Amino acid sequence: MRMYICGEWVDRDDKMPVINPFDQSAFDTVPRGSAADVQAAIASAVRGAAVMAKLPAHRRYTILKRAADLMEERADDLAETITREEGKVIAEGRGEVQRAIQTITLSAEEAKRLHGETVPLDSAPGVVNQFGFTIRVPVGIVAAIAPFNFPLNLVCHKVGPALAGGNAVILKPAGDTPLSALKLTEILLEAGLPEEAIQTITGSGAEIGDVITGSPDIRKITFTGSMEVGDQICRNAGIKKVTMELGSNSPLIIMSDADIEKVAAATVSSGFANAGQVCISTQRVFAARTIYADLLDALVKPTQEFSVGNPFDEDVKMGPMIRQTDAERVETWIAEAVSQGARVIAGGDRSGTLHSATVVADARPEMLISREELFGPAVAVSAFDDIDDAIAKANDSRFGLSAGIFTQNVDWAMKFAQEVHSGNLHINASPQWRADVMPYGGLKDSGMGKEGPAYAIDEMTELKMVVFHLGG
Q1: What count of other Cβ atoms lies within 10 Å of the Cβ of residue 221?
Q2: Of 12, 317, 353, 412, which sits 20 to 30 A from 84 (CA to CA)?
Q3: Residue 207: active-site member
């Protein structure tokens, strides 16, 4: 496919292959964008931002709603594209398309809800003839830098609110998974989006990322990816608004009163979906010591039955990891844990990009599998003594994106909600739960800012204060 800049679909002699992670076949190519391409796209986006700023809310709504309808019409093709370029099983691909449609629909609705409010200036002593109100205006150009693991829905979470707020967008999809974003761009343009309101640049983030994020013409950056890259972006960005959705190693606490079978099912589904390549995958499982052995026993069978293979096979539950080097890293971290006293009680095998669903018992906090973001299909299980010990273990991390607890004890649940350092907290569910309407974001090294169309649009607009100084 070609990339889209300056109102045109363009190609380049220098191309990047798009690789199917399952069979390693190169089934398409995209241009390798250059710094010059970025500069041209920014100049075009400046013009596009001027057009978008004058586009009334009802038109922004109509365009986004029409885009959602077109996505529904092309849902099968979008799902197949996601599975082919990213590797998640086709059922998950279909689910991502439906979520992306909802995200664009929610964004469309938010275009009609942007408003200011009156400010009671006369509440301040001595103010008697002033009338104040606020208005929201677009920031101008939003740079949207997306990850590989949800190549359509996470793009929609950035592009949808940006356009709803009246901005132009420069979209940089992940180099591994650019096709879903390019097809979304086609849909938005067909839906009536002004031709310079979006630029979709393909290429290496290492080569063009700093050019995008350092531009003074870009007033907002929204990024999902690793903490290390997010830190580099923030250092390069200068004074501009940023939303950083970064890494995690999400904890799940299992109290003594939990339903073990329900917990085992939730752990398996949330630990191994999309081969564990989800920011909020269950990674660290902490079980009360009195039920620790029972939980381990309950995890073995469903983990062993979590089949891995061709993601287009309807019976397969888990596809490949995005790259063989990532699968090798997961294998290495598990081996390191075993060398330090942990036990693999289910899974642990790898063949190329296919890594089996794996449960590691007796994990300790100094192990890589506990300390860093694994981003792969393995969960690390350990025991705790009481709720205070469980919370301390959950908080023993530089990350804080999502956490879960299973308990019927209201006091334990409230203590968890109040004391666990996480932006998303789930009671009687796994950390890997997200509705696209909710505010979503992390604490600590997991980032800053919120996604979810109603919340993202606030961060993609500026608040202006207007004061009438009246006579009398």
Answers
A1: 26
A2: 12
A3: no
In a domain, 472, yes or no: no
Annotated active-site residue in 96, 110, 279, 331: 279
Instruction: Indicate if 6 belongs to the active site.
Output: no
**Half-sphere exposure for 249 (CA within 13 Å, toward CB):** 25
For 133, the domain range is 3-246+446-467
Could you read off the pLDDT of 360-399 as tens digits, one per residue?
999 999 999 999 999 999 999 999 999 999 999 999 999 9
Shared domain for 242 and 309, answered yes or no, is no
Rounded percentage of the chain residues whose pLDDT exceeds 90: 99
d(CA 47, CA 42): 9
Based on DSSP, count helices (H) and strands (E) in the chain, helices before strands: 15, 24
Say if residue 428 is in the same domain as residue 462: no
Whether residue 471 has pLDDT greater than 90: no
* % of the chain with per-residue pLDDT over 70: 100
The residue from 96, 245, 451, 459 that is catalytic is: 245
pTM for this structure? 0.97
